[in-house]
Specification:
2 helices, single chain, alpha+beta
Amino acid sequence: MQIHARIIDDFKTERKDISPPLQAYLRLVPVLLYAAIAGSILLNALFIARYSQAGSARDTAVRQDSELNTELDGVKSRRQALEDETKKASDLSAWVEASRPLQSLVVEIARSMGSDASLVDLSLERDTTNPAQILLSMRLQSENPKQLDETVQTIARNRFRTFSPQQTMEKGVVDYKATLLWQSSAREQTAPAQ
């Protein structure tokens, strides 16, 4: 017996006990499922993109922070150098202001020299422990023995009082050392100690 070839398109048999199709609103469930899956994929992609942006922003902020700290250290060092320069300038200004009475004193000492006298050496040093005291060291060459007295009186007229003077004289050269104390204008000037 020979079977004739024929094409079978439908392998299902008709059944009568099949349930009725789903209602129309329940057909949205698979659509919502696929939409939720697509949305979660999209949100995860956005999260990953934002996470990488936040990481790069953090790296940029850390780099900027280190650059700003380096710049701040440079500014601090420049400020410290500027403050040191300011302190030096104010110290120099204070020194100049404090030495201003000494300038006129030196000029007056030089002018007090007579025609037969010369000032060989003059030294004014400020005492480091007591800056109000000035150590005067002077060497005069003079034939006139009263030249030193005139110079000491000139110092007294400039409102300086001599304290513990020492003088030595050899062959027309007088070495004179004393401590000078400034007298304020409120006090009466006293004669210099000899």
